[in-house]
Amino acid sequence: QVQLVESGGGSVQAGDSLGLSCTASGRTFSRGCTAWFRQVPGKEREFVGGINWNDGDTAYGRSVEGRFTISTDNAKNTMYLQMSSLGSEDTAVYFCAANFRMRVGVPRLASYYPDWGQGTQVAVSS
Question: How far from the centroid of its chain's Cα atoms is residue 95's Cα?
Fold first, then answer.
């Protein structure tokens, strides 16, 4: 059984940086695609960014491109999200998602990801 666990959320000031981690147990990321989504109450989950572990292809949401960076550590089976220049609009619950069979591409729709973590809260105050 696959379990995704996010960590690293917290409360920061506008302009600060923060890093999140997502680790999988029960399956390795190495042949699939993983992504970060975020959600605020009353809104749909928003694609933040993702990476296909097969070829390193990455994609980012328009609102975070240039500020957020996704990286991976194969040995630790972990995906990271480094966030910089945070603003109040980045306040959300951040979710890690995975599709262990996606060989190519980085889907931006949440429905393409069968496996999800529980989420970690990021709060940015101005």
Answer: 6
